[in-house]
Amino acid sequence: MTRSLQQIIDANPEAETFRFGDSEALSAEILALVRAGRKTATCEAAHHYGDKGDAWPEVGRRDVALEWDGRPAVMVETVEVETRRWSEMDEDFVAAQGEFRDLAHWREAYRAYFERTGGWSADMKIMCERFRIVEDFAGGGE
Fold it and tell me: Going by fewer Cβ within 10 Å, which terminus of the chain is more open, N or C?
C-alpha cells in the first residue's frame, strides 16, 4: 500500500521534510546514493537552521527526504549531529557522504553549493549529520 506524504507525516508528526541538493538532477543523484547505502551523512550551512529556517536535526528524529517533485522518497533517522567550521571537515565525514573522491573534491563542490545557496566563508559553521535509512517509499506517495 502506498502512503501519501500527509499519511506519513500524520504517523510521524515530529518529522521534518527536506530535499537533498539544489536541483532536480543533484537531488536524484543523492537519493540514489542514499538508497544504495553509500551516503550515510550530509551537511548544510548552519545559517539555514533556526527561527527562519529548518529545524536543527536531532538524534533519534526521523525525517522525510522528498523527491524533487515533492513525493516522499525515504525516511531517515538522525544518528549523530555536530557543528563544525569549514576548515574542520575531515576525510572520514567526506567519505560517509558518498559523493566525493576526497576532501579537496568536497571543498570544491561544497564551496560552489554554498555560494549558490546563501554564501560561503572560510570560517562558516556547518551542520554535519549522520543518518540511517529507515524506509524507502520508492513508487509510493501521491
Answer: N
Check residue 53 and give its pLDDT.
77
Are residues 66 and 117 in contact, defined by beta-carbon separation less than 8 angstroms?
Answer: no
pLDDT for residue 92: 97
Q: Are 65 and 21 in contact (CB under 8 A)?
A: no
Domains annotated for the chain, with CATH where assigned, are 5-136 (3.10.400.10)
This prediction has a pTM of 0.89
Neighbours of 31 (CB within 10 A): 22
pLDDT tens digits along 60-98: 999 999 999 999 999 999 999 999 999 999 999 999 999
**Helix extents (H) in 12-141:** 24-35, 91-97, 103-116
Kind plus residue range of the DSSP H or E element containing 17 = strand 17-18
